[in-house]
Amino acid sequence: MGKDDVYFLIGTVLGLLALLGMDWKLVRGRLSKPVRRSRGREVLLLLAVIGSLVLSGIGWYRAEHPKVDVWKLPTPQTVYAKSYINETVEMDGKVFDHCHFENVKLLYHGLGPVSIVQSDFKGQVWVGSDNIAIQNFGIANAELEKLAPLIRLHSWVQMDKNGNATSVQ
Length: 169
Fold this sequence. Notes:
By secondary structure, the protein is of the alpha/beta class. The protein folds into two domains: about 5-30 and about 35-65; about 75-150, no CATH class. The protein is about 40% helix and about 25% strand. The protein contains four helices and nine strands. It has helices spanning about 5-20, 25-30, 40-65, 130-145; strands spanning about 75-80, 85, 90, 95, 100-105, 115, 120-130, 160, 165. The strands form three sheets. Strands 2, 3, 5 and 7 form a four-stranded parallel sheet that branches. A three-stranded parallel sheet has the order 1-4-6, with no helix packed on it. Strands 8-9 form a two-stranded antiparallel sheet. Helix 1 (about 5-20) packs antiparallel against helix 3. It is elongated.
């Protein structure tokens, strides 16, 4: 359960408390005599409503502005001299050093960095992702590579937040 799920649950509970804390007879207009209101109950109700709105706002903001500049698997795991034959290899958060790949499907979720060092490939190799952003980038990159004879294409450069290319080491 992620942080956003916790915000949603707390906001829901606060909203339910606000609903349960209301004097429904007063809302329906069925009171026959004036009601002496509890100051504590009114303050609790107000805090529950405000808390629910604040947490709902945080959840909405985070849903609209996801943090995509950090890895979910930040520390890479080194895989040394392993052979992969006729299988699907998950690449996220791994450094493949001196590995052998033969008739493999390389699956990248986009959760961590990937590096392939002095490895060899044989047979057929498929590269894919279940992440729609990566899939769309792959499609756009393939289309741009078709134009490589016509334009000066600098692929795989790092960009800053303003779209300026920076050098890749």
